[in-house]
Amino acid sequence: MQTSELKNLKIAIVGAGYGGAAAAKALSLLGAEVNVYEQASQTREVGAGIGLRPATMNRFRQWGIFDAIAKVTSPSEYFEILTATGEPIMKETWPADGEQTHTHLIHRGDFIEALLGVLPEGMVHLGHKLESIQDNGDRSVLTFANGETVEADLVVGADGIKSVVRKELFSDQGPVFSGEHAYRAVISVDDAHGMVTDDNLRMYIGKGTKVYLLPLRHRGQVSFDITALCPDGAWNPEVTKDDILATVEGFDERLVAITRDLDMATVNIRAVYDIDPVDTWHSDSVVLVGDAAHSMLHHQGQGANSAIEDAGALADALRDAPSLKEALARYQATRKPETDKLQAISRQGWSEEEIDDVFPGQKPADAAPKE
To answer: Does the keyword Ubl conjugation apply (predicted)?
Structure first.
């Protein structure tokens, strides 16, 4: 699009998570008028650590915010998968992107804070819970629970796995339960029983449970994540420490000790969901990004990275395509094949039925065929 057209473009982004904040930065660099509407009254990200891949870090370099992100990360050279008792299964360096070879490990809260910190003051509007969206073709109107309405040339739906934008305009299919729970905490490196001595991600797998140790040594901490098979699909299930300890039975005693020492008040407990692929991500004036478009299971560690890539691809398309309509089609054509693959791969090999094919001998004992 012409520079003059971009400068006259009024963009409303719904959601100030990874995808929304990244899209705000990328699109504002085009010269467009960008406003972000977030339902929370304050920006706060709970949970644990994630890894920002080399391609993602290169997007930040392109947007001039690499240093702002990198200074609150630990650069990692490789990731490793091991058995429950620590025997190596696989060790690989991170896929490089040009000269960028490190994946940067970061706390979710630090990441959101850094992203929002590089946006112009006044761009993010808190306390705006979206109630409805009306797509009028060349423009759309947002109505919020606080009574405010906003009209925009382009609405970017970055409102997560329970996206109102997706449900109202593109797909009314709800989230899909994976049959797993995730138990996440951030603990001191000193409480990791000597298991964290470098900046590399390790996953221990046994009997249907995955234990992730993601170092955040720039904070003196480590992100400790247990993902375990469980049939309870409640969004916020009631789980005791004994329940969690049962999922790591037979693991390296140091991992069991970390679990035993957890302060349950600090553990984020949730059932794990994704969504089925959405056929269409855009109209002529509305587009989906991030989890709203393609929420995926966390097994490949690509949720946040995909949201950042979406933001970059959307900005590229708006800059290079001759019209807004063509830009949105180009964006979907670029990103949807990639995220469809990631969604599928993230689902593969982790169910009770599949896990023994991927990691022989690791099927839960109570799920093994009876003789």
So the answer is: no
Two structure tokens written together for 353? 């039925």
Element (H, E) at 325: helix 324-347
User: Helices 303-320 and 54-62 sit at what angle, rounded to 10 degrees?
Assistant: 40
d(CA 114, CA 61): 14
Show the tokens assigned to 215. 């170092």
The distance in angstroms from the start CA to the end CA of the chain is: 66
| pLDDT band with cut points at 50, 70 and 90 for residue 42 | confident
pLDDT tens digits, residue range 50-64? 999 999 999 999 999
Cβ-based neighbour number of residue 277 at 10 Å: 16
Kindly indicate the confidence band of residue 348, based on its pLDDT and cuts at 50, 70 and 90. confident
Tokens (6 digits) for 96: 């490089």
Sign of CA dihedral 238, 244, 245, 249: positive
Mean pLDDT of 7-30: 96
In whole angstroms, give the CA distance from residue 197 to residue 25.
Answer: 35
In terms of Cβ atoms closer than 10 Å to its own Cβ (0-12, 13-18, 19+), residue 334 is middle
What percentage of the chain exceeds 70 in pLDDT?
Answer: 93
Residue 187 has pLDDT above 60, yes or no: yes
Residues 6 or more apart whose CB falls under 8 angstroms from that of 99 comprise none
